[in-house]
Write a structure and sequence with these properties.
The chain is mostly helical and 251 residues long. It has helices at residues 2-30, 53-79, 81-84, 92-104, 117-124, 133-148, 163-182, 205-244; strands at residues 196-198, 201-203. Helix content is 63%, strand content 2%.
Amino acid sequence: MRGPFLLLLRGLRGRWAGMAACCVLAGCASNAPTPRGEVKGAPTHAAELAQSDANRMATLAMQENLDGLLRLADKLYRRNPGEWRKGAATSREQALEQLRTAVLQRQPWAPLQGRRDIAAMALALAPEFAGDRVAAFIYATADMIVTAHGGKTEFFLLDGMDAQHLYNAARNVETAVWLLAQRRNPQGQPLLLADEIGQQGRNLSFEREFGKIIARLDLLAAFTTEKYRRAAISYVQGIVGGTFLQFLPVR
């Protein structure tokens, strides 16, 4: 009797081991990372023939910064739906499209009363401002960033950038984010509802998006400074190399 019993016990153990292995594999599959898209290159245009690598990087960074600001406008409108209703738009989508057109085509934004750059940012973040604060804030910030890049959104071989202006633009965005969180309107409420930490959960997506914009500006400022520094070093290396690093005749 022991022989059949041992065979049955071994069979059960093998079956349980197989079931356990299946459970482990299923658990690993459930913990597999969720696809989050993939990096994609932009289509090639003939104009890129007049762009250096630095020009192309600055152009892509500008596009990402403007797109990031428009994403923030959408998120701010969702949390502050009363803002887009202050304008002439009949829907949030229409308000976003009007703002996108004004930002990308650098059209004046009437509620800012002709102000541009940091003067427009100051008005958009003034507690007494009564217009659509989301549109005014995003438009003014975009205008300030474009101004820091010499008023351009695309860059070619003859274009140059001021590293200090780019650095200052990053600090301006930091200041604006801080003012947005700290200032209150005449009713004692935040100028705009953005990040939230409370019993319902944490929403720090606004801070992350602003952080990306600041990081791009800082990186471009550092890269611009390094480009000019390396150009000077390369020039000296060329002179030294031309004089001392030559092969000498041996016959």
